Amino acid sequence: MNKHKLAYFLLALLIISCKKEKKKEVLQAAVENSDIVSTIIKDKESFYYIDFKNYPNKKKELPIGVFDSGTGGLTVLKAIVNYDQNNNKNHESGEDGEIDFIKESFIYLGDQANMPYGNYSTENKVDLLKEHIIKDVQFLMSNKYYTDALDTMVKTDKQPVKALVIACNTATAYGKEHIEAFLKKANSNLKVIGVIDAGVRGTLATIKKDEDAIIGVLATTGTVASKGYQNTLLKFKDQLGYTGNIEVFSQGGVGIAEAIDEDLNYYNKNLKKPRDNYKGPSLDNDVKIDRTLFDIYNFDFSNSKMLCDTKELTNCSVLQINDAKNYVRYHLVTLMEQIRQSKTKNKLKSIILGCTHYPYMIEEINAILKELYNYKGKNGNYFYRDFMVKNTNLIDPAVDTAKELHQYLKQEALFNPVGNIKDSEFYISVANKDNANNIIDSNGRFTYNYKYGRDANQIQEYVKIVPFSRNNISYDILTRFQKQIPYVYQLMQNFNYQNPKTQHLSEKSKI
Questions:
Q1: Which of 290, 376, 467, 470 has the smallest count of CB within 10 Å of its CB?
Q2: What phi, psi does 215 have (nearest 5°)?
Q3: pLDDT of 392-406, one tens digit each?
Q4: Domain segments of the chain: what residues?
Q5: Is there a common fold for 31-194+399-502 and 198-397?
Q6: Rounded to whole angstroms, how far apart are CA atoms 284 and 317?
Q7: Residue pair 336/297 in contact by the 8 Å Cβ criterion
Q8: Which residues lie below 8 Å from residue 223, measured CB to CB, with a gap of 6+?
């Protein structure tokens, strides 16, 4: 090799080395410790920056933002888009046969890549949860999204929003005050509506002012741990003048929402035997399946809906739930056992569905409650009838959330005069494969240990937010949407087939 070639070779090595160092510096900058709130407000170079000075506050034509940790919040959106309790001409009380939000468009976000939110408190990562929640808000207020998981260039033609609905109980419990503090710091007057206050008002409306009763709360473990419903119930009870003895019993529904959204740590329809990465109730972990209650659980073992390590199902040494209804069975029995063992003289009158996924299971919940009401022990006596009314009220906070949203738009004169609900948009988060820090499994999802092992304040793009499609929502989930939230499903289809943001999707990947 002559001197000139050697010089060129050494120069090339130097350039490559510099590029590697530069890339390393960029990567380090991407995970530099910083508060997400300060980043959004102050860091003009950040992906998450929002120019609040020029934010179009209270512009009537803007859409309304709705977010959840996954697809459960679509049950809240269902209540909103089907809401007809007012006259559309003057917005006064009284249904007129036309939905109240017919001229409003919505932008929905399901942060499925980071769900379930209910587990962050259990894993002592509430700060990380709050960061995810603020990022959800940032997305809805910003103009950025990706067209799909493989897109490397961010698009900037999304509209900001004129109001926020937190369609997630856990995010409301841990994040509503945090969001409001963030907006105050940013000098933003954006309205934030959460589902917990609305749900409590709806629940108390089913009870007489002097009535003794038990209210059950079926929610995620995070919502239960926050005591959001319990504290709000007791606060409103006193404020509204309820004098009866109202008791609150809460049950953290580990696995229900996860099975509905097909989180593989809790549900995998392709399995025939137990797996190592299971996170739901079992015979020997903290969330325990009680062998003495097998007859009451009445689990459905067909089609691998329960996974056992032996052929003889009664002799399982490893037993795992692998079906959403079986999760519901486990948690309703556990709730009734709490009440029975408390020796209370009151009866369960209402259950708050404290997770937006749970309304998908209303038929199953009602059927299981009826089973438990009629269940007799070996002595022939009813086991739970002294502790529950015949027909337990199931409270879905979504309708009261729609009511509060309507009242706000009326109060602030923010109804869109020229909009169209068919312009609504639907987005979901997916693991960002372009972030070298992410640990992603063969299914394209974060591993459990990585998801809950991350720390707050390492500001980076863990996820990409993309439109709903068959690439990121399974056929089974879409079928459930079509059956249980048909109007929302129509709006999804309209977004997929008529919106320029989704024209890149092939016919096979569209909803």
A1: 376
A2: -110, 125
A3: 999 999 999 999 999
A4: 31-194+399-502, 198-397
A5: yes
A6: 9
A7: no
A8: 118, 169, 170, 173, 217, 229, 252, 354, 355
The tokens 């020796």 sit on which residue? 343
What DSSP string runs through 388-452?
EEEEEEEE-THHHHHHHHHHHHHHTT---SS--GGG-EEEEEEE-TT-TT--B-TTSSB-HHHHT
* ω into 467 cis (within 30 of 0): no
Helix (H, G, I), strand (E, B) or coil at 310: coil
- Which amino acid would we find at residue 86? N
CA torsion, points 367, 372, 378, 383, in degrees to nearest 10?
A: -160
Per CATH, which fold does 198-397 belong to? Rossmann fold (3.40.50)
Q: Are 246 and 212 in contact (CB under 8 A)?
A: yes
Type of residue found at 190: L
The domain made up of 31-194+399-502 has a fold known as Rossmann fold (3.40.50)
CA 208 – CA 231 distance, rounded (Å): 19
The CA distances from residue 395 to 209, 403, 466, in Å, are 18, 15, 32
CA dist list (Å): 370 to 32, 334, 500: 54, 15, 48
* CA 351 to the chain's CA centroid: 19
Identity of residue 263: D
Q: Per-residue DSSP letters for 247-309?
A: EEEEEE-TTHHHHHTT-TTT--TT-SS--TT--S-BSSSSSB--GGGHHHH----GGGSEEES
DSSP class of residue 38 equals H
Nearest to 331 by CA among 293, 304, 387: 293
Instruction: Give the model's pLDDT for residue 28.
Output: 36
Q: What is the dihedral of CA 462, 464, 468, 470, to 10 degrees?
A: -80
Cα gap 350→449, rounded to integer Å: 36
Six-digit token pair at 153?
A: 């260039």
Tens-digit pLDDT profile for residues 43-77: 999 999 999 999 999 999 999 999 999 999 999 99
Average of per-residue pLDDT across 25-46:
73
> If 0-12 CB within 10 Å is exposed, 13-18 middle and 19+ buried, where does residue 402 land?
buried
In whole angstroms, how far apart are CA 174 and each of 144, 253, 355, 460?
25, 17, 14, 22
Angle at 156 between CA 489 and CA 127, to 5 degrees: 75
**Residue 268 CA to its chain's centroid (Å):** 20
Give yes or no for a contact between 109 and 427, defined as CB atoms under 8 angstroms apart.
yes
DSSP β-bridge partners for residue 467: 427
- How distant, in Å, are the alpha carbons of 216, 219, 241, 339, 343 from that of 346? 12, 21, 19, 9, 9
> Which residues fall within 8 angstroms of residue 209, CB to CB, at 6 or more apart?
240, 241, 242, 243, 244
Residue type at 471 in one-letter notation: N
Nearest to 182 by CA among 198, 170, 200, 164: 164
Q: What is the per-residue pLDDT for 172?
A: 95
